[in-house]
Design goal:
Elements: E1 9-17, E2 23-35, E3 39-44, E4 52-57, E5 61-64, H1 69-73, E6 83-89, E7 96-107, E8 115-120, E9 123-128, E10 132-136
Antiparallel strand pairs: 1-2, 1-5, 2-3, 3-4, 6-7, 6-10, 7-8, 8-9
């Protein structure tokens, strides 16, 4: 079992059970504020109104190691010529659309959202640049 310290960032897992016996897992990020033998107190800032403090069993928690500042700074960004995948979620239908193609053009104009033009098969398709991850350079 992980050892916890005050201030640690943790993921806390919980279960929702409905009348049909269907179980779904949910999780939240929280910070440890006090540690006991079997439980700890944590505070979550992921609520819509205010910070929420709660008691939770240690076995339902997993410590998260935050990335170093240099790891955050050195993110690889897609470049023209890379094989990329674009993943976009439609907010009204929750449908997820994936496009895989070669990044042919990046449009970065200050007054518009940064976009990309992908060659998908034999067609060119537009995608938000922030939706891209690199498959192959």
């Amino acid at each position: 079992m992980s050892s916890f310290s005050k201030g640690d960032l943790i993921v806390v897992v919980g279960v929702k059970s409905d009348s049909d016996g269907l179980q779904t897992y949910e999780q939240t990020l929280a910070s440890v504020i006090a540690i006991g033998k079997y439980d700890l107190f944590a505070i979550s800032e992921q609520t819509s109104y205010r910070k929420a403090m709660f008691k939770v069993q240690k076995k339902l928690c997993k410590k998260i190691e935050p990335p170093s500042a240099s790891a955050l700074k050195d993110c690889n960004q897609p470049k023209v010529g890379d094989l990329v995948v674009s993943v976009v979620q439609n907010y009204t239908t929750d449908k997820i659309e994936c496009k895989t193609g070669i990044l042919k053009e990046i449009v970065d104009l200050s007054w518009r959202i940064k976009t990309a033009k992908l060659l998908v098969g034999t067609k060119y398709e537009d995608a938000p640049y922030d939706s891209l991850i690199i498959l192959e350079e």
